[in-house]
Design goal:
Structural class: mainly beta
Helix content: under 10%
């Protein structure tokens, strides 16, 4: 008996070590020295992707100390106009990497390392991969200041933990504590039919369900009468303590008569699969209503790895004369949950309303290459660009190509080509392809040129058109005037903007030498720090060149005076 207990203890110890190896909950510390309140959770549903970290509020301000979550070395630095903006990656001895995004500034040693290479490359945007012995950091060492750089919608810190395969994982698995006593909310529920004979309340298509909250906090839907193969989906969000942000849930589960039929948990994913989020949600409803319904079933084209214990792909087969209790449970990481109960009565009935399918000359099969050539426009879709077969709507009016509409998600880049041979060469040089919104406003789509053709790659359907841009970018000073003494100034600021094709590049010089001007694309703001280098003499010449995406350029030259 004693020997049995000994081996049981060893087994428990090994299990404990394995658990800690998998998710070391005492290895990482929080990256900010404030109570952690989230504006975004891990796995939250975003446009075309899952959120890969925690968005931590920084009290509506920038400049908070950002700490290394554990010892290690800076393995990657990326500075870009959009995305994570100024981002830092730290590799740790246990094989994990922590990521810190939307930073304002790096620590002095990291900042010096970056600026040296920015000046060597004469580029603000840069990506660096320091060697293991170049930028080592200690646990709780200040590595940066929080900010609002890149595509951030407000001051916050984006924090990630990635495994050795660069898969992002939920930082809360590693002991990063977020106070959360609130159960998720379920705001809408929908039923879907999948065969010509299936129906919900005599409707073949999509049926929105009514429900009410019960005394115990659960939700009870009105009884529905259904028949055939159907599925369910819900719109659900979660809120943590101290914030009103509508964040993402941790798991979604569906039981049919007490037996699990469906479950997904978002605790880890790969960047290569994240776009399949568009197959998880009802993308058409999101396009029309900006509401994300998460499907409690898995369609064939959906390749996400977040599912477990799914029976019959989550579809429910309703038989005539039988009763069913459908329970959909939304849960957050802390275990708070919200349950929706849907009573279903099996009843084969006549169908009064059927979903309407608009037919067109172009029927696209998801597993085939699809192409349209018409009126000097060519659109080519690679195999598996779509999740389902459908009728594609296309027309061309003047220089506008109408590519179906944005209600259908596209998984791979398609190629859109305009034949512009009818234009003169000078006219062709100023043309670009843009996606056009409902108000007719163009948004530049990266345009390539090949002889007398313009083409672009994109993953969003909608209206595309040719536009001509003959106007150079605008450049104007913000905090100084020509001929001014700037001895007491720390920063030199200008704005660059372009009303049509947008800014492609810029270059700034003082006295003929390149200077580092940080570009805040959200505010169209260029900023130079006089502390970067000493200027000789008192009189100086600033030169800024801005180029747009069809190579119109503008040059701003100003003389200023400064004593060191």
């Amino acid at each position: 008996m004693g020997r049995f207990l000994f081996f049981l203890m060893i087994l428990c110890l090994e299990s404990s070590v394995f658990s800690q190896t998998k998710y070391p909950t005492d290895y990482f510390v929080k990256p900010l020295d404030i109570p952690l309140i989230l504006s975004g959770t891990f796995g939250e549903l975003r446009s075309n992707h899952f959120h890969s970290g925690l968005d931590i509020k920084t009290q509506q301000r920038q400049g908070l100390n950002v700490y290394a979550a554990a010892e290690g070395y800076v393995s990657r630095i990326k500075i870009s106009h959009w995305g994570y903006g100024k981002a830092l990656y730290i590799r740790h001895p246990n094989g994990y990497t922590t990521v810190y995004g939307h930073l304002k500034k790096f620590s002095p040693k990291i900042e010096a390392y970056i600026k040296q290479r920015q000046y060597e490359n004469e580029s603000y945007t840069i990506q660096l991969f320091p060697k293991e012995d170049e930028l080592r950091v200690n646990k709780k060492e200040i590595v940066a200041l929080s900010g609002n750089s890149g595509g951030s919608g407000g001051p916050h810190l984006h924090f990630e933990i990635r495994d050795a395969n660069e898969y992002p994982m939920n930082p809360m698995l590693f002991g990063i504590h977020i106070k959360d006593t609130k159960a998720p909310q379920i705001r809408a529920a929908v039923a879907y039919t999948f065969t010509d004979s299936s129906h919900v309340n005599q409707l073949n298509g999509v049926k929105e369900l009514n429900f009410k909250i019960q005394k115990d906090g659960s939700l009870l839907a009105d009884t529905v009468e259904a028949f055939g193969l159907i599925g369910f989906g819900v719109n659900t969000v979660d809120r943590q303590d101290g914030a009103l942000n509508n964040n993402g849930i941790f798991s979604l589960e569906m039981l049919v008569n007490g037996t699990r039929q469906y479950k997904h948990t978002i605790d880890k994913f790969s960047f290569s699969e994240t776009r399949y989020l568009n197959a998880l949600i009802d993308y058409g409803r999101f396009f029309r209503k900006r509401q994300r319904i998460q499907k409690a079933f898995v369609e064939p084209a959906n390749k996400l790895s977040i599912y477990e214990g799914v029976q019959n792909n989550g579809y429910v087969s309703i038989e005539d004369g039988k009763s069913y209790s459908i329970q959909i449970i939304a849960k957050d990481f802390k275990g708070n949950k919200r349950k929706l109960i849907i009573p279903v009565k099996g009843k084969k009935d006549s169908i009064y309303t059927r979903k309407k399918i608009k037919t067109t000359p172009y029927f696209f099969k998801a597993n085939q290459f699809n192409k349209i050539e018409k009126e000097k426009v060519t659109i080519a879709f690679p195999k598996k660009s779509f999740y389902n077969d459908f009728y594609f709507d296309f027309k061309k009016e003047q220089d506008v190509a109408f590519l179906h509409n944005g209600s259908v998600p596209v998984h791979k880049n398609f190629t859109l080509t305009f034949d512009v041979s009818e234009y003169s060469q000078d006219e062709q040089d100023k043309l670009f392809i843009a996606r056009v919104n409902k108000k007719g406003r163009p948004s530049y789509s990266n345009t390539k040129r090949k002889k007398s053709k313009l083409y672009t790659l994109n993953k969003t359907l909608g209206n595309y058109a040719l536009f001509s841009d003959n106007q150079p970018p605008k450049i104007r000073p913000v905090n100084f005037k020509k001929g001014q003494w700037l001895s007491k100034y720390r920063y030199l600021k200008l704005r660059i903007s372009d009303d049509l094709s947008g800014i492609k590049s810029y270059r700034a010089e003082i006295d003929g030498e390149w200077i580092l001007m940080e570009y805040d694309a959200k505010r169209s703001l260029l900023t130079y720090d006089f502390n970067d280098k000493k200027l000789s003499n008192n009189k100086h010449t600033l030169k800024v060149i801005a180029v747009d995406n069809v190579n119109n350029s503008n040059t701003y030259i100003a003389t200023f005076f400064r004593k060191q």
